[in-house]
Amino acid sequence: MARLKIAVVGVGRLGQAVAFRVLQEPYVKELILVDIREDFVQGIAEEFRHYVAIASMHDVEVEAVSDASEVAGADIVIVTAGVPRKPGMSRRDLAGQNAKIMKTIAEAMSPRNPNAVFLIATNPVDAMTMVFKRYARVEKVYGFGTMLDTARFRSILARELGVEPSRVTGFFVGEHGESGFVAWSTVYVDGIHVDKWVKRKGKLLDKQAVEQKVHRVAAEVIAATGATMWGPAGAFIKVIRGFAIPEDHLLAFGVEMKFPEVEEPVILSVPTMVTRGYVKPLLELLNEEERKKLVESAKSILNVYKQALTALEEQKES
């Protein structure tokens, strides 16, 4: 297995959690932490070096920089930088503020990392991935999308049915946000479609209640703790592995797709087969009703993206 150079841009609470998970992956040779707070990012890097020295199963070189343009030759760049979501805010509320940050990072990093895979976590993630791709002018830009929603869904459904999460498969698709939804046609328990499984077991399943819980759980965690960290870190590492390990991975994350009903390509999440350097969305796994809902989700994302671009223009003029 080739060992890779990975950069994490933005080491706030989420960035630290993601970077710490990346640090433990066997395919990582070099980890670069990027944050505009120079003393802070150097301190985090020093802590990581101590961890590697005593607890890591493999050696990792850890570096820290405060200027994203200093990073060169990365294999994977993970962007978590941005204004975090606060209690009472929707992800969409962040679009204007975070678009400027995406533009700045994209323009700073893409020239010296032309072959890197850029993975975006900053919210609203689908629109911000589109903004990043617009200004980076490179092809391999993806969003973490609904991989986190998928993890939350599987956890919530498993508890609802009284089974272990590992026995549940299925995907949350569309927007990482208000218009995203569970693709129930993809949901299985023990390899049996959830509708048949529930009927066999004589259980009741309120699908709407499960889906509503998925939508509100992030706000509940943020209200209780101030941020979401470990759930995202776990979900994101699955996507990172998809690009790092040359095996097939079926995931839900943000990829660019075109729909006849939508005026321009949109980045959103569908079940997608990924192995290192190869990405194939599998829209055919969704039924007709789900595909119609996906189009509506795409329209919502495009609207947020346009709002972000408008905000960038207004910032330029002011």
Can you walk through the features of this model?
InterPro entries: L-lactate/malate_DH, Lactate/malate_DH_C, Lactate/malate_DH_N, Lactate_DH/Glyco_Ohase_4_C, NAD(P)-bd_dom_sf. Residues 5-140 form the Lactate/malate dehydrogenase N-terminal domain. NAD(+) binds at residues 10-15, 35, 98. This protein is α/β, with parallel strands linked by helices. It folds into two domains: 4-143, Rossmann fold (3-Layer(aba) Sandwich), CATH 3.40.50.720; 147-306, Lactate dehydrogenase/glycoside hydrolase, family 4, C-terminal (L-2-Hydroxyisocaproate Dehydrogenase, Chain A, domain 2). It is built from nine helices and twelve strands. The strands form three sheets. It has a six-stranded parallel beta sheet with strand order 3-2-1-4-5-6, with helices on both faces. Strands 7-8-9 form a three-stranded antiparallel beta sheet, sandwiched between helices. A three-stranded antiparallel beta sheet has the order 10-11-12. Strand 7 and strand 8 (181-189) form a beta hairpin. Helix 3 crosses helix 9. It is globular, with a radius of gyration of 19 Å. The model has no long low-confidence stretch (mean pLDDT 95).
